[in-house]
């Protein structure tokens, strides 16, 4: 590695930018800014500053174990909340003291009308 300190500084800068992007919905998606991504093949893994930095940062990510968590989409969270609410409702319906004769006719709760 030609200049390890510059890689460290690059990593610090990237983490700082990533932290700011987390709070800005407009820029949290890199594809919102740049629609095209260019991939290039490098013949060797030696001598390219960006590649050396990427290798060092990848090794640090593995050894430090800081996970990169992607936020779940709102639709997923809504579905999870709905599922949990229906589960609690069903448990209350199954174990409740009132409405037992109706429970015999309609044993499963649902947010859809009966009929």
Poorly predicted runs: none
Give the class from helix and strand content and strand pairing. Answer: mainly alpha
**Count of alpha/pi helices:** 5
Radius of gyration: 26 Å
Query: Can you write the helix and strand succession as a string?
Result: HHHHH
Strand content: under 5%
Proportion of helical residues: 55-70%
- Largest sheet at a glance? none
Shape designation? elongated
Number of strands: 0
InterPro entries: RNaseH-like_sf, RNaseH_sf
GO molecular function: nucleic acid binding
Explain this structure.
With 115 residues, this protein is mostly helical. Helices cover 58% and strands 0% of the residues. The termini are far apart. 2% of the residues are buried.
Keywords:
115 residues, mainly alpha, 5 helices, RNaseH-like_sf, RNaseH_sf, nucleic acid binding
Topology:
Blueprint: H1 4-22, H2 30-33, H3 49-64, H4 74-95, H5 100-105
Helix pairs in contact: 1-3
Summary?
The chain is elongated.
